[in-house]
C-alpha cells in the first residue's frame, strides 16, 4: 500500500465529501440559519414595536386620564355654579313669598282693625242710644231714628 495513493484517495474522498456537503447539506442548513436569524430579528423588531406601542399607550392613557380629570373638574364647577344659582333663585322666591305673606298679613290686620272699629262704632252707638234713652226717660226707636244713628256712627 502506497501512502501517496492513500493520501490521494483520501483527498479525493474529502473533496467529494465537501462537494456533497456544499451541494446537499449546507443549503438547507444555511436556509434554516437564515430563517432563524430572520425570525429572531422579527421578534426583536416586534419587541421594539411593542415597547413603543406600550409607551404610546401609556401616554394616551395619561392624556385620557388628564382629560377626564379636567372634565370632572368642569362638571363639578358647573354643578357648584348651578347649585349657587338654585340657592339664589330659592332666596329670591323666598323673598317674594315673604313679601306676599307680609302684604297679606298687613291687609288682614287692616281688615281686622276696620272690623273692630265697626264693631266699636256699633257698640258705642248702642251705648249712646241706651244712655240717651235713660236721659230722656223713654226708649228711642232705632228704626225711626235711623238717619240720626247713621250720622252718629259716622261721626264716631
Descriptive notes:
This protein has 156 residues and is mainly alpha-helical. The protein has one domain (27-155). Helix content is 92%, strand content 0%. It has 2 helices and no strands. It is rod-shaped. The N and C termini lie far apart (173 Å). The mean pLDDT is 87.
Domain tally? 1
Parts with pLDDT < 50 across at least 5 consecutive residues: none
Give the helices and strands as they follow along the chain: HH
Cα shape: rod-shaped
Write the topology of this structure.
Elements: H1 3-136, H2 146-155
Helix pairs in contact: 1-2
Keywords for this entry:
mainly alpha; 2 helices
Please summarize what this structure is:
The chain is an all-alpha fold and 156 residues long.
